[in-house]
Design a protein that fits this description.
159 residues, alpha+beta, 4 helices, 28% helix
């Protein structure tokens, strides 16, 4: 079972290392990790996705609360959250491949952010499944490079 945690932390050096280290020491594999400034400039929000099938999640959240720079931890319910991921993908676009790449990009709502003689770079935002589907269609053209943010998530509604 996948768990998505939203962890609000003080924006201080070394906090991410301590948080990630806690998961590693407990034997959790972090599937996705995204960090950025929150609505408060002094705080950062870490979105962590882990597979909790092997280990109980409550142990690690209790230990996270003990870390001095952790302000708030919230497990997000899959049915009550908005989730997205950003991906940049560089694709071979020589000759006929360019037209096909641009058509695939249009279907997925991907933006063309860079065009060179032999390559195009696409930016797409969406679910992990959407990004995987796009990659599968682009693979025969020649995917040269991929950069992904990992998921970011926010609870729906107030609070």
């Amino acid at each position: 079972m996948k768990h998505t945690l939203s962890v609000l932390v003080e924006n201080k050096p070394g906090v991410l290392t301590r948080v990630a280290g806690l998961f590693a020491r407990r034997g959790f594999n972090i599937e996705s990790l995204a960090v950025g400034q929150s609505e408060d400039p002094g705080l950062s929000r870490i979105t962590i996705t882990i597979d909790g099938a092997e280990h109980p999640i409550d142990q690690v959240t209790k230990q996270l609360h003990k870390l001095i720079n952790v302000v708030k931890i919230r497990e997000l319910d899959a049915s009550c959250m908005v989730v997205d991921e950003l991906m940049l993908v560089k694709v071979n676009a020589e000759g006929e491949k360019r037209t096909e790449a641009l058509q695939i990009a249009e279907v997925f709502g991907a933006k063309i952010v860079d065009v060179e003689r032999r390559t195009v770079v696409l930016r797409v935002v969406g679910s992990t499944q959407k990004l995987q589907a796009l990659l599968e269609l682009l693979q025969p053209l020649g995917v040269l490079e991929i950069v992904r943010t990992g998921i970011v998530a926010i609870a729906r509604g107030k609070g």
